[in-house]
Amino acid sequence: MYQAHSAFTEPENPNVKVWRYMDFTKFISMLDSSSLYFTRADHFEDPFEGATTDAILQKRNSLYTNFFDVDEAREKILAESNMYRNLRLQYAINCWHENEHESAAMWKLYLQSSEGVAICSTFSKLKQSFNYCGRNINLGRVKYIDFKTDDITEGHYTDQHPIVYKRKSFEHEREIRAVIWEPGEVDFDALMEKGGKKPIEAIKHGLQIQTDLQELINTVYVAPNAPGWFRDLVEQMILRYSYKIEVIQSSLYTGAMF
């Protein structure tokens, strides 16, 4: 179920539109499983997922060098870095795009061809869709910062905070992020003793989270340049899985007047 967390900031308007762009095979997989797929944090293209900032590294280094000799401080700094890198194996993430309108950039980013769709919902519906999934899910906006200069340790800093930050280079994504953290039995002292490399209970690849797609999805948009037969196929697949969801052909590149 949805669980509020201090690290996650919700949009001011709970009914703001959110979008998930995907190719046709992922769309069919979603319909067939009646679920949303959460990808393990270390499987994203961005190597900075769950990474820390220079400001935190400086504070970490100062803490250990003030209390330990040079060699022991170096070992503990490396161990903590390894530990937090490994903790990403216990996070799974489902990504959405916040926007009142379609995004040409998102169509290009997530589709390799014209045979794709975008499902449109609202933040409120997305939050409600997790009410009966049996897992605790945090949900909110990604915060885009400069990892070299910004300090994210102000206020109530927790282990979940790094997972909601990304570099400013990704600001165009305007991401709404749903996150599952399954720490299992994490003994942080034991992890540190093993140089931060002790095996932990990890999520395997990702998680399929059961969702009421009929309640979640307002509309399915077909890619702007998709042929007519592809829209017909999308409609047929929706009906085959017994959903009643409106399908709209994107008009992003039509109707220009001169």
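(ticket continues) Second input and output from the same batch:
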Amino acid sequence: MRKILFFFILICFAGCDIPSTDTAVFSFLEIDHMELMPTENQGANTSAFTDVWMFQDGRSSGVYELPRKIPVVNNGSVSGSIQAGIRDNGINSSPRIYPFVDTYNFNLTPDEGEVIPLLPIFKYLETTNFRLVDDFNGAHQFGFDEDGVDSIRIEITDEGEGLIKLQPGELIQEATALVFNEIPQDGSPVYLEIDYKGNLDLDLGLIGITGESVFKDYFVSLRSENTWKKAYINFTDLIIASGFDGYQIVIGADNSINTTEAKIYIDNIKLLHF
């Protein structure tokens, strides 16, 4: 599973009653990673759930970066729920509960001090609207040439991945041919999922369209990575602020100041909202 590792972060919300270690009995959940189980037409199962948001008795008991042994109160049994945490826009300091997957519930009967391995598996919520699912198997949706250079396009590899290949001095701007209308602008979350790797930064953004008015905003630049990573791009605030009738997803990269060939691989792009 492709995943991103980040520094440890622990959050305990104000108002939580933390049991006294003198009276409470603890066991431990050992969670190395968490997984996604999509259904048909929901795309690949790649995920980057980096954090466990833990709840017991309806209250937060902390947020833990994985892998981690998590202490849980044992009152003869151990029950609670876990929500999957991500990092918005690939930024370490932006932990969020991913809004499009369900809650993982557990009810266990461990001994005092026992360490129980646990693999939380999440499914997309039934209310999730999949506006784009592009797995680059045979074709892709980024057919709008925004840079005006027809010879530089997103290719498809034999492995079914998107490939951006740029010589020194070249750049690329490619957008979805489809304009996505009726994107919620009431604060409801709008996210783009993408898997990527390469030796050049990857820019992601939106082209907004209303009548003859058009704007383009490269909202996020993802750092080059030698191994596959997954990013969750939060377009919610940008869509609220811009308020256009329709949007295209735009991908860009600029190799104009480098002296060597650049390659960026992309895969499993999803546009999600409720």
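Agent notes: The helical segments are 236-242. The mean pLDDT is 92. Closing as not reproducible unless the customer responds.
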